[in-house]
Amino acid sequence: MPKITRDQVKVPADVLADARETYIDNYMKATQGTGRLMLFACDQKVEHLNGDFYGEGIDISDSDPEHLFKIADQGVCGVMAGQRGLIARYAADYPNVNYLVKMNSKTNLVKTAQDDPYSPQLHDIEAVLAMRDNGVNVVGLGYTLYLGSEYEATMLAEAGQLVAQAHEEGLIVVLWIYPRGKAVGKDEKAPTTIAGAAGVALCLGADFVKVNPPVATEDKTSAENLAVASAAAGRTGLVCAGGSTVEAKVFLQQLHDQIYIGGASGNATGRNIHQRSLDEAVRLTKAISAITLADYDVDRALAVFNGEEDFAL
Fold first, then answer.
1. Which of 40, 192, 307, 312 is the most buried (most CB within 10 A)?
2. Which of 27, 151, 178, 296 is catalytic?
3. How many alpha carbons lie under 13 Å from residue 255 in its C-beta half-sphere?
4. How far apart are CA 31 and CA 77, in angstroms?
5. Known InterPro entries for this protein (predicted)?
6. Domains of the chain as residue ranges with CATH
């Protein structure tokens, strides 16, 4: 199992001296002491409304928002990401979960054909710090940025300021960067576009960046193209969005290839986990973490998912 020590954490220079140990604490918590991120993404109740939580093919337990917290509490996750209000409503009952507060969100009702995407920041960092001071286990912040949108400049400024403020407080930052808008068109998952997004995250100072996997090309698989983006990200760890729910073995193979071929520093998975029953979702978090945090191969991780082998950090 890959492990890092506290002195191996590369603390950014914008982390103030009196926040250095807090930053290291939060980084080690979020990555389970491995340097890799297993992010349980639970921000879709705004992003995709209720369509991701109720309907055909979705376990009925997902209609209850507390399902997300039960999974994070009983499963093996590095950090659970969600909006401030969602976390505020349930965190007192789940104090051991590591939380990453998503600072901005928008719904999917306004399409790009109507207007380029812009996801404004919903509150200032002081509201999150107040929750942390009140005992909520907040280890980081998240922000979604749509490169190529006509509102790109505003989001770049918001994200840059947020990273600076978070680091001053010893918090880690994960940027969701999705190239999207009329200027991007159908190239939002092109390898060069994804690699560009990864480089932007580095220049903004993010600790991790969440991107969509690039499409395969004639000469390279998606994972091979992802390796270019991972290199462009430098010391910003790159993780891939999990996407829509697929069969477990297919998902675990994709995840394995993203990390061990594409150089990803973990994963960011939402629907593939929470649309399942509690038992199945918990087992999948363990299988994902076995690959991400413990270097399991796909067959062994699948055995964890099928309940044939237990996994715990």
1. 40
2. 178
3. 35
4. 9
5. Aldolase_TIM, DeoC/FbaB/LacD_aldolase, DeoC/FbaB_aldolase, FbaB-like
6. 6-306 (3.20.20.70)
Kindly give the residue spans of alpha helices, DSSP state H, lying in 14-83: 20-30, 44-47, 66-74
Amino acid at position 247, single letter: E
| Whether residue 210 lies in the annotated active site | yes
- Residue 13: is it exposed, middle or buried by C-beta count within 10 angstroms (0-12/13-18/19+)? exposed
Helix (H) or strand (E) holding 211: strand 208-211
Catalytic residue (one of 210, 220, 260, 296): 210
pTM exceeds 0.70, yes or no: yes
When pLDDT is cut at 50, 70 and 90, the band that residue 130 belongs to is: very high
C-beta of residue 140 within 8 angstroms of C-beta of residue 173: yes
Cα–Cα dist 118/152, whole Å: 8
- Per-residue pLDDT of 19-52, as tens digits, reads 999 999 999 999 999 999 999 999 999 999 999 9
Maximum alpha-carbon separation in the chain: 53
* Cα–Cα distance, 291 to 302 (Å, whole number): 10
Residue 1 scores a pLDDT above 80: no
| Distance of alpha carbon 36 from the chain centroid | 11
Q: Which two tokens stand for residue 150?
A: 């006509």
